[in-house]
Amino acid sequence: MSQFWLFGVWVLVFGMVQCHESPETESLSYVDVKNLMQRVILLEESLRMEKERNDELEEKVNSLVTNLEQTKRKFEDKCTSLEMKLQKHQDSETKSGLFDTHHSAENKTQKLKNDHKPFIDWQRPWYSLLKTHESNAGPEVRERISSPNLQRRLLVQPSPVTPLPVAFYAQKSSTTPKSEAAADRVIVYDNVKTNTGNGYHPSIGVFIVPESGMYVFTWSFRNGYDEYQSTQLMVNNNEEGRMHLHQAPVGSASATGISVLHVNKGDDVYVKISSFTSHTGSVISDNWGKSFYAGWRLN
């Protein structure tokens, strides 16, 4: 198509030259036409090369587009596969959770049934006497003894669960000197021997009641010669016990107090030096004897 177009241009130019030029310029016009034809040929070659380059570029672009489309399809397939795996995993976890919940509920129900299942104490003397009487009795008596109502009355309910024990026992690891044994000072028994229930706090000498109930509290302290002290057992800010010790001017002595109290969960129970009476001396705790503080709940 491009060659036909160029040939038409060449014919038109040649005709115009032949019509308008004089015979004197005929040889010159031929040269010009020849040069023009060469230029046309060069342009045609240039167009051909450009077309080849464009075709090559178009082929590369088409290849890249194809590769991108293939890559896109691979990613879409992979995403679809991952979504399916995730959905299966979630469904599996949901089913497993429902199964565990159902299984746990069945176990709890069975446990409640077992815990509340009544029982007969076959070893009790009254039961053996009843069976002997039944074997020796007539048909009417045996029927009455074997009746469901009587059997239900013989069923014994299980005993309630015993609460966990609460108890503590601590000693003073060293002597509190006379200069520090001031009024209202809390006596800190810092060497813990027992602390079941974790109610006693040795850093401050206070027992914080973990469970309400009846408790026994006991405490002791020692004085040196010619010394006297009064101590108080305190529940929060209230005195619940007091003890006085006055040692003669020789050796040392100890005193022990005890109280039985109902205290509530969260109450602070501690021993302090009394501020109601005069006092002088140290609170001794050494190798000869240890001052102590203890308490336990009555179940």
Overview of the molecule:
Its main location: secreted. One of its GO terms (cellular component) is extracellular region. The chain has three domains: 1-117; 125-154, no CATH class; 167-297, Jelly Rolls (Sandwich), CATH 2.60.120. Helices cover 45% and strands 22% of the residues. It is built from five helices and ten strands; from the N terminus they run αααααββββββββββ. The strands form two sheets. The protein has a five-stranded antiparallel beta sheet with strand order 2-1-10-5-8, with no helix packed on it. A five-stranded antiparallel beta sheet has the order 3-4-9-6-7, with no helix packed on it. Strand 3 (200-201) and strand 4 form a beta hairpin. The longest helix has 90 residues, at 26-115. The N and C termini lie far apart (116 Å). Mean pLDDT is 78; it is low at 116-127.
